[in-house]
Amino acid sequence: MVLTEPGLSVVVDAMLIARGVFQRMLSFLTYRVAATLQLVFFFFIGVFALPLENYGIIDDKFKFFQLPVLMFMLITLLNDGTLMCIGYDNVVPSVRPQRWNLPVLFCISAVLAAVACASSLLLLWMAADSIGNYDQSWFHGLGITKVRPGQIVSMIYLKVSISDFLTLFSARTQDKFFWSNMPSAVLLCGALISLAISTIVAIFWPDTSPDDINTMGLVRGDGNTNLLPIWVWLYCIFWWFVQDVIKVLAYKLLERFDIFHYRTIALGHYKPKAKKGKTHHHHPDDGPEPFVASPIAVTSSPQHHPH
User: Fold this and answer.
1) Which residues contact 230 (CB under 8 A, 6 or more apart)?
2) What is the pLDDT of residue 296?
3) Is 215 helix (H, G, I), strand (E, B) or coil?
4) How far is CA 49 from CA 114, 129, 153, in A?
5) Under 8 Å between Cβ of 131 and 56
6) Are 170 and 178 in contact (CB under 8 A)?
7) pLDDT reported for residue 137
8) Are 124 and 46 within 8 A, CB to CB?
9) Stretch 64-79: mean pLDDT, rounded?
10) Residues 126, 50: contact at Cβ < 8 Å?
11) Read out DSSP for 239-289?
12) Least confidently predicted of 107-111, 137-141, 230-234
């Protein structure tokens, strides 16, 4: 092959680097859209569908679930700090030329967000239901101690934070399971530090009322809730596996029925239809026709070195 000749293999290296950059950009955008959708729909649905006063929580300042502004800032700050590490992530460059398919990107982001949002709403409902009807609640059936209204805030903060970070590891592998490609040490360390900070904040938050919202750390109180952080972590990890399986199934569905031209674009067979009245016929005076790259494998081949 011509590109494996001495002096020209640098072209292959450039293609690999460019496709690696594309994969990182795709991971970044998929995660950013998913995280935004999760937060927006969680609070939108939580406010209107789960008024806390219906679950025995009598507090004029806590009729609807809300997070203190400081917790929102921590979620955003830690997420952005971890996202900066994605530029150093391990990626597997595609063997074919890449092109943007925004409908697929938004579809997968919506799938990731839907699972994370549904699991957060379920946890909020179970926690709120345990306040006024503990003996008949899911928390009682699962052996989880009754929580206070202020601890619901810390619990949901921890759940949303963990789910956001775990969603990043699901989004970065696209149509494969999250364990198919190990993250780089930089990304892994950044995520672990952010997760540790979020967990510590949720555990030891003092019994205060920022923004007039009663907030209490998960281990504050009589000591019966000391295992709550571990339970929230296990809950998030379970839904992370569910989220990743649904993501892979969504990709297979897109490929099976070629939804949004997913399969044809992946195979390099997609040709956008020319708009009516915009058909361009090449004229000899216009110079040489533009080069159209055909799908080629960029796997390394043995190079011939002069003796």
Assistant:
1) none
2) 43
3) strand
4) 16, 13, 17
5) yes
6) yes
7) 87
8) yes
9) 90
10) no
11) HHHHHHHHHHHHHHHHHHTTGGGHHHHHTT---PPPPTT------GGG-SP
12) 137-141
Q: 292: number of CA atoms within 13 Å, CB side?
A: 5
List, in order of start, the domains of the chain with CATH numbers. 29-92+100-266 (1.20.1110.10)
The per-residue pLDDT for range 193-224, each reduced to its tens digit, is 999 999 999 999 999 988 888 899 998 866 67
Q: Tokens 């043995």 correspond to what residue?
A: 302
Residue 103 · residue 27 · CB < 8 Å: no
DSSP 3-state of 190: helix
Residue type, 11: V
Q: Is the dihedral of CA 142, 144, 149, 154 positive or negative?
A: negative
Residue type, 50: L
| Residue reference for tokens 């571990």 | 230
CA distance 115 to 250: 12
Residue type, 235: Y
| Among the listed residues 32, 92, 93, 82, the one whose alpha carbon sits nearest the alpha carbon of residue 187 | 82
Q: What is the pLDDT of residues 235-267, one digit of tens each?
A: 999 999 999 999 999 999 999 998 988 888 777
CA 11 to chain centre: 33
